[in-house]
Write a structure and sequence with these properties.
single chain, about 325 residues, alpha/beta, Quinone Oxidoreductase, Chain A, domain 1, 2 domains, six-stranded parallel beta sheet, 11 helices, binds NADP nicotinamide-adenine-dinucleotide phosphate, binds zinc ion
């Protein structure tokens, strides 16, 4: 079978389509014929050599978390799914043994990791992590959900977002950004988001964004957000200076949930503001399989239509990473092996 592998950690030029053996399901696993696999900035970090998870010794490496397709083969111990089932993968890998696995939510697992290998014609996955798709949900749409939408949903729930809340989304145009805007809107909240590009903000307005601020100047953004209101919640996947901004701009008693570091891996906390204003800053990674199931149900009921910017053939996988690194896209980029 063919895979889009990282053969060098130098950015998009390091992606090559190569042949490798079709995987074996093993006793608890399944092999899925991959129709669609979305890419995430997580994959770009790896490709640029910015992730501790993959080093040169691990090459060639096949990334790809968000697998959707059809089950081809299952191991002898598997009864949950069978060949021919249409499925999407929850890429969480958890130990099932630690106290976080016992108490939940499962994404707190002390041994949490992610299942890679989706940028391929077939992928070996844990059968228990497969979620069934009804006919209403295409595999391309399903592939856009696991990482971006589940992460955004979990963050909104951690911030207890509800009707009439104001949610601030710095970087509202990417995978997690647009997902946050759409899901906050479904929860009845109002949204204010930023981008370097007015034309991208215009597209996100069609997905429900109430207020778009075209700026990368955090002082300017602060002023413009406060003209709208003091956010009850900040969904922060950018990190860096957007963390100081998020803390400063949010309402008394507000919550900022942080899941990423696109704009920088360190930030300064204003300690007095934190305790005097009763603010909360919370870290979050991925979401639960149950949250993924709920999102798939929302899509099946036509209550959520994930934002897909572009689809790519397997041979065009490098182009998908160029689009992400050049900040050209709005929403998700999906490879269709
Ligand atoms: N912890 C977790 O479980 C988890 C899960 C998913 C994602 N993440 C993290 O969340 C972040 C977003 O992931 P994603 O897949 O949604 O990425 P993405 O689609 O590439 O995000 C693009 C967004 O980031 C903005 N952006 C890009 N580079 C920027 C920069 N240097 N400074 C400021 N803004 C910048 C873009 O703004 P413009 O519109 O101006 O181009 C756009 O709004 C990543 O850091 C990722 O690792 C974490
Ligand atoms: Zn665990």
């Amino acid at each position: 079978m063919r895979v889009a592998a990282f053969t060098d950690l130098i950015g998009p030029d390091g992606v090559d389509v190569i042949d490798c053996e079709t995987p074996d399901p093993g006793s608890d696993g399944a092999v899925v014929d991959v129709d669609a696999c979305a890419i995430n900035r997580h994959d770009l970090w790896i490709l640029e050599g910015e992730s501790a998870m993959v080093e040169t010794d691990d090459l060639p490496f096949v990334t790809g978390l968000d697998v959707a397709g059809t089950v081809r083969e299952v191991g002898e111990g598997v009864s949950r799914v069978e060949p021919g089932d249409r499925v999407v993968l929850c890429p969480n890998e958890t130990c099932g043994q630690c106290r976080f696995c016992r108490e939940g939510p499962e994404n707190l697992c002390a041994n949490f990791s992610l299942s890679h290998g989706g940028l391929a014609e077939a992928a070996r996955v844990e059968a228990d992590r497969l979620v069934a798709l009804s006919d209403e949900v295409s595999t391309t749409v399903a592939a856009s959900i696991p990482t971006a939408y589940t992460t955004a949903f979990h963050m909104l729930r951690r911030a207890d977002v509800g009707p009439a809340d104001l949610v601030f989304v710095p970087g509202a145009t990417g995978g997690v950004g647009v997902a946050t805007v759409q899901l906050a809107t479904i929860l009845g909240a109002r949204t204010v988001g930023t981008s370097s590009s007015e034309s991208k903000l215009e597209q996100v307005r069609e997905f429900g964004l109430d207020h778009g601020i075209q700026s990368t100047d955090t002082d300017e953004i602060y002023e413009q957000v406060r003209e709208i209101g003091a956010p009850d919640a900040v969904v922060n996947h950018l990190g860096g200076e957007y963390t100081e901004l998020g803390q400063r701009v949010m309402a008394r008693g507000g919550t900022m949930v942080v899941c990423g570091r696109t704009a920088g891996g360190t930030s300064t906390i204003d300690v007095a503001d934190l305790f005097l204003e009763h603010k909360r800053i919370v870290g979050s990674t991925m979401g639960t399989q149950d949250e993924l199931c709920r999102l798939v149900d929302l899509v099946a009921a036509s209550d959520l239509e994930p934002a897909i910017d572009e689809t790519y053939a397997l041979a065009e996988t490098a182009d998908a990473f160029v689009a992400m690194s050049e900040r050209e896209s709005v929403g998700k980029l999906v490879v269709q092996p």
